[in-house]
Amino acid sequence: MRTFNSFFLNLTVSILDFLYKGRDFQRFWVLEEIARAPYFAFLSVLHFRESLGLRGPEHIYLMKEHFDQTLNETEHLEYMESVGGSKYWVDRFLARHLVLFYYWIMVVYYYVSPKNAYHLNLEVELHAAETYQKFLWDNPQSEHTEKIESILMDEINHSKELHNAMLLIK
Ligand SMILES: [Fe+2]
Ligand SMILES: [Fe+2]
User: Fold this and answer.
1) What structural domains and CATH numbers belong to the chain?
2) pTM strictly above 0.90
3) What is the pLDDT of residues 90-108, one digit of tens each?
4) Is 114 exposed, middle or buried (0-12, 13-18, 19+ CB in 10 A)?
């Protein structure tokens, strides 16, 4: 499944690279719109498992962690909106359809194989961090530097948190 995760991520990245060349903030907005979906999917599945009486010892920790992560991604999304990332209809159309698709894939994936679902999203977070790092290298004088650095650190923290979550579950 790890090979499938890498293939899926590389394919998606290639498509986004092609579609969003030279349109950094639209690209970031799409990434942040999609980035919220897995955390909401994890919460949905954890809720469902709780209803089925399948609450493990790590349940409350994971619920809190994923809720914090989804809020943090929403803060990133709001920043990208404030700098025009969502101003074009075509980007909103693409991202909102992608996110519906990705949410349901993550619900099924996390229910069936939580470790692999965490692994895929750990890779997504690392990719997001690399994307922001590349922006900082390409735009050393940008007025957005401070904010992008802070978002980059958040994405690295998310990847570490997902790694810890992988170690927690069986
Ligand atoms: Fe983010
Ligand atoms: Fe993130």
Assistant:
1) 2-168 (1.20.1260.140)
2) yes
3) 999 999 999 999 999 999 9
4) buried
